[in-house]
Amino acid sequence: MKNSNKKTLWRWISLRITLLTACMIVVIALGMWATYLIQYFWITRHLSPEISRELALLMQNPESNPVRLHQILDAAWGIRASLPNIAAPDFLWLGMHVVVTIPIVVIISLRTAKPLSEQFSNLKSIAELVAKGDFTARAALVRRSPEELIQFAQIFNKMVAQLEIYERELKASHVAAAHELRSPLTAAIGRLKGMLDNVFERDEKQLSMVMLQLKNLSRLTDDLHFLSLADAGHLALEIKEIDILALIDERVSWLRPKFAAAELMVSITSKSPCYVQADAFRMGQVFNALFENAIRYCGKGCSLKVHISRFDDHVEISFLDDGPGVPTDFLPKMYDRFTRNDTSRSRNSGGSGLGLSIANAICHAHNGKITSRLPAAKGLLTLIHLPINQAVK
């Protein structure tokens, strides 16, 4: 793609090469002009007054007596000055000016290219550190280097910073995944060991408790596999036209007993049915995750308002509750894996910390997005934007 930026690296280099070339030509020309001027004044000062006056008149009108003019010039400047020979004084003077000018141009060129070289050297050094796994390194920006190269260094630093975040999140995710997998597995093993050691009765109740932990473990591994597919871009979606309003009504009907037990009032408003091209099952997972979160965290006597709005190219679905909300510093990491606002309460209530991560992955797979923010009053506002007819990634 053609770069429209006027300060590209190519322009930066071309401009300086052109300026150096022009400066070299100008310096040589000025040197030759100064040489001729000095020679002229030096020679004319040593001519007799009569010859000087005659030369001045002939210089004003050379055609009047060209033979006499050449006689005076040859006598004053020497016969070799007018010979078409490379050894003529003019060529010697030109060569001397070139020899003197070249070192000056080289020095200026080196000083001009120094910022360019320093910036590339910085990038090379930092790239070597990043290749060794040091994602904390950043390339220093060199002043007076090309703007395009400075922008490249800034983008490179942003890329390394993103890699640092990914590495930190990956390590935290591995630790959290190991902990989450170990919890139900340890509970199941402990219960089975207790039955083998006759600490617990070998009855249906104890086996049901073991089965519950194994189901939690199976669900957790399924969720992790789902997120891995989403990260790799291999999430399969069955796209068809669905009515978002009807889908939300269906999910609310399924969860109505839980809403009643949590004393959570749910209301849905929409001016008309909203049809979009989406995967009904996956979008149902998104709505389930948001409803389950509201059941866990809103508290008794709270309300959850769901509103659906249709625009020209997308649908917006808002979930607004009047519960306690979340801390401000928790908002940026709400959709990270294994993230909970209240770790102990969430785990005891069955949450794995992957529900919102899965919801986020599903929305992105639909070319949409899900965001949350704190409204002016108390509670939490979550917005889902879904395209109506866009192709799915």
UniProtKB/TrEMBL annotation:
Stretches that traverse the bilayer: 12-38, 91-110
Cell compartment(s), UniProt: Membrane
UniProt superkingdom: Bacteria
A GO BP entry: cellular response to phosphate starvation
Cited CDD domains: HAMP, HisKA
EC number: 2.7.13.3
Keyword Methyltransferase (UniProt): no
Family annotation (Pfam families): HATPase_c, HisKA
Keyword hit for Transferase: yes
Keyword annotations from UniProtKB, A to Z: Kinase, Membrane, Phosphoprotein, Transferase, Transmembrane, Transmembrane helix, Two-component regulatory system
Domain Histidine kinase: 176-390
PANTHER family: PHOSPHATE REGULON SENSOR PROTEIN PHOR (PTHR45453)
Protein name: histidine kinase
Organism for this UniProt entry: Candidatus Pantoea deserta
